[in-house]
Specification:
single chain; alpha/beta; 7-stranded parallel β-sheet; two-stranded antiparallel sheet; 10 helices; 11 strands
């Protein structure tokens, strides 16, 4: 596994998005734990979670508790594993997603995450989504307070635009280490944010990174779309003898040295395949083919 920089840390170039292990259609616990352990065996050291990754209206913090159990049960060294969690969203019984970015809520949410993860300080804590009803500076100020209190070690923001990244960077300085936005072959509307992260030295963590190539846990139960305008990913995969998903993640890694994709997985074989993308280096000609076959904004 190659490594990339996240603030003062080095993490595996491909992380694990643990959300599918706790949402609808999730695997049983035995397979979920095996999936996390397979990720660790493959050199993955960044595990992404959130307090809102659970079934609608039930089991708040399920995903955080699951990761804590997985790490406790793992037979190897986990000292270099970074668990990144998020606060500010909820999942009520109707299956929707709420947003609450008040400082009081974020502080309470971080305390809950601390207890569920069983750590003295959260390695990376991220504002899950800006709350339009709360000044963004106040939500980021809550992260600053958590840093000052030693409750979290590093901070990040998610689902943000260029202006919000600049605000967070002004308030937090070098304690802001990451931006987590949706980015994939299919969804490229965070191109400006990706470029700004490279300028500021922030890790860019694409969520749902396989959009257009694979179905996300957020995409519902429908079947995969046809390869269509993303056919080059499948063609290069066949030529290389790897999966289209691996080609997609290698393409993301080639976008910028700040990119650390966090693909979801619910089976050990899936995350093992994704982790292999860290060693797949695409040629300039292959990257040009991918840019020319539907991977443009």
């Amino acid at each position: 596994m190659r490594y990339r920089t996240l603030g003062p840390l080095k993490v595996g170039a491909v992380g694990l998005g643990a959300m599918p292990l706790s949402l609808e259609g999730r695997p049983d616990e035995r397979r979920a734990l095996a999936t996390v352990h397979a990720a660790l065996d493959a050199g993955v050291t960044l595990l992404d979670t959130a307090d809102s990754y659970h079934l609608p209206g039930a089991e708040p913090g399920h995903n955080e508790l699951l990761l804590a159990r997985a790490l406790a049960a793992y037979g190897g060294d986990t000292s270099d594993v970074l668990v990144a969690t998020k606060g500010g969203r909820g999942r009520p019984a109707d299956g929707g997603w709420t947003v609450t970015g008040t400082p009081g809520h974020l502080k309470a949410a971080a305390e809950g995450s601390l207890k569920r993860l069983g750590v003295e300080a959260i390695g990376l804590y991220q504002l899950h989504k800006p709350d339009p009803a709360v000044p963004f500076e106040e939500s980021v100020g809550a992260l600053s307070g958590l840093l000052d209190a030693g409750k979290i070690r590093l901070a990040g923001v998610s689902n943000v635009d260029v202006g919000q990244i600049r605000v967070a960077h002004r308030i937090l300085g070098d304690r802001l280490v990451s931006v987590q936005n949706r980015y994939s072959p299919e969804v490229r509307d965070s191109e400006a944010e990706l470029l700004l992260c490279a300028e500021l030295g922030l890790a860019f963590l694409p969520w749902s990174p396989l959009g257009g190539i694979s179905r996300s846990a957020l995409d519902g139960p429908s079947g995969l779309p046809g390869v269509g305008r993303f056919g080059a990913f499948h063609e290069i995969a066949a030529e290389r003898g790897v999966s289209p998903q691996q080609v997609c993640l290698a393409w993301l890694l080639a976008r910028s040295p700040t990119v650390i994709p966090i693909p979801g997985a619910s089976r050990p074989e899936t995350i093992r395949d994704s982790a292999g993308a860290a060693e797949l280096v695409l040629s300039a000609a292959e990257l040009a083919r991918l840019e020319g076959q539907g991977a443009l904004p």
